[in-house]
Please model this.
Amino acid sequence: MTESTALYDLPGPRARRRHLGYGAAASLLILVLLGWLAHLLWDTGQFTATKWTPFQYQGIQELLLRGLGNTLKAFACAAVLSVALGAVLAAGRLSEHRAPRWAATLVVEFFRAMPVLVMIFFIFVALKAHPLPALVAGLTLYNGAVLAEVFRTGVNSVERGQREAAYSLGMRKTQVMAYVLVPQGVRAMLPAVISQLVVALKDTSLGFLITYEEFLHAGKLIASSLDYDLPFIPVVMVISPIYIGMCMLLSWSATRVARRQRRSPTTEAVAVAPAEPGTLLPGKQ
Model:
């Protein structure tokens, strides 16, 4: 049974029956909407054999797999570089020295305000970069700037007493950040970090605008084929679940990492033995 929290108490029998009714009504409404949508797709001929024929050919399947591989490659590069850039910029914003703090703030605010597509086009056209480096660079600059704020907020969310206690033990600032603040701030950072990585995964679809052969570009080539009566809706029905599945897999992986971290001996609370009766304070008889 779900434990009560500071926000709400456990529902009683009447509340549980009411919630069950709400859930059943919502489920019925969703089924009705899905049935209505399927009816519209059937009436417009989206389930005809002609539109679904291309997915049977090996060349089309290889095209989709190649596009999926390119999408994952761009995402992997952008994710690693974004986290690294975000960490560097966050360290700059948390610096006690004015020059690096102002420089990091200027970089973060500029790239957070700049649209991703504009940066990708600028790198691709003005700097004459290849499609993959242009896409990865644009995603890295934007997501790295956003993650810098996430990291900074996560570190600042740790109670001030933790920092003061670490300094009182003689630890240097680097040690305080590495061993005290960052491990505790990760719990607050993780949901926002994963959300931003999901955004980066979806933004890889912008690569088709600069002729990068990613997953959406492959789907666009299939959907624009006149030989198969422009199978746009079937392509969407095939590509969308794969994108959703990748995002869900990323969230599931983050959840597992968070659970393992909570079980880690470095972050797990240490049990304190209860006071025994008859214990006397110093100076007392």
